[in-house]
Amino acid sequence: MLSSSLIYIILNRNEFISGSSLIKSFENRLLKRSLSSINETKTNKEIIDLPSFIPFTSFRTYHIDELTSPLTINELIQEAKETNKFTIFCDQDHSIQGSIQIQLIQSTQSYMISIKSSLDFSTLLCHHIHQLFVVIFDHHHHTNRIINIWGNMDDILRILNSYDMFSYNMNYLIDIIDVQQRFKQWYNKTFDHNIDCKQILDYHNIDGPLCSCSHRPLKTLNEQWRLEYAIAYTFSQNLNVKNDDIDANIHKCLAITSLASVIEQQWTRKQIKGYIWKCRRQHVFMKL
Ligand SMILES: [Zn+2]
């Protein structure tokens, strides 16, 4: 028995050696491939490497500060009366250069109002800013009027109240759309789990700890999307949130509007893909 085993080993020695070198070279190839895929992931999947965010429509910006004429705000109040969709964004961190963004969403060109967070507005200017918010929140102008926000409305109202710009009361029956919540529902429905993902449950497409899909970064049920990730995962674009300035806040407001439109129109995966290609062409064109 022992001798037959020995003979078997001797007989198969050559095959064994060549087999071991085969395994080694296979291992090397695997390692090379995995290293290059790590490098590829690093270079391809950093948000900073993505092309910049492109808003859906063009917009005209109005910066409101202590020197703004009340007449300008009056003009914006008239525009707000004609508008039935808005997006409001306030930077929660509240830097020194804090601002409150309101987008008056119109089909051809939107109005982007950026109000400096200041307690130094004159009484007259303060009154006009207050009036602007009253018009925006007053559902009597348009019964189907909506305001898009990202997250909790209480946080926004607290900031508006702290700068004496607006106090909310229960008579405002306007529809507030929390785009952050709705985005999660739309995204999970549109970008399903991979077929080999362990998180797949019958009848319930949720985020969970068993999920191994790289396109679904949320791994717990109550986790919420950050705006820059929502833009990166949906449109493959970089929102440049690291810049803590008014322009970055304006882009965040526009980003909420883009996501709100996608959700409202219930875009499919194919539509998103088509849009990404359209934007890539635009980016190439912009670089020329
Ligand atoms: Zn998954």
Protein described:
The chain has 288 residues and is an alpha/beta fold. It has one domain: Nucleotidyltransferase, domain 5, CATH 3.30.420. The protein is built from nine helices and six strands; from the N terminus they run H-H-E-H-E-E-E-H-E-H-E-H-H-H-H. It has a six-stranded mixed beta sheet, sandwiched between helices. A hairpin with a 4-residue loop joins strand 3 and strand 4. Helix 3 packs parallel to helix 4, helix 6 crosses helix 8 and helix 7 crosses helix 8. The chain is globular. The N terminus is likely disordered. Bound molecules: zinc ion. Zinc ion binds next to loops.
* Low-confidence sequence ranges: 1-20, 30-42
**Helices and strands, in N-to-C order?**
HHEHEEEHEHEHHHH
State the CATH architecture. Answer: 2-Layer Sandwich
Distance between the termini: 78 Å
Structural class based on helices, strands and sheet pairing:
alpha/beta
Q: CATH topology, what is it called? A: Nucleotidyltransferase, domain 5
What is the CATH first-level class name?
Alpha Beta
Strand arrangement in the largest pleated sheet: 1-4-3-2-5-6
Helix count, DSSP H or I runs of 4 or more residues: 9
Q: Which cofactors or ions or other ligands sit in this model?
A: zinc ion
Strand share of the residues? 5-15%
How many strands appear in the DSSP assignment?
A: 6
For the biggest sheet, the summary is:
6 strands, mixed
Rg is 27 Å
Shape descriptor = globular
Tally of structural domains? 1
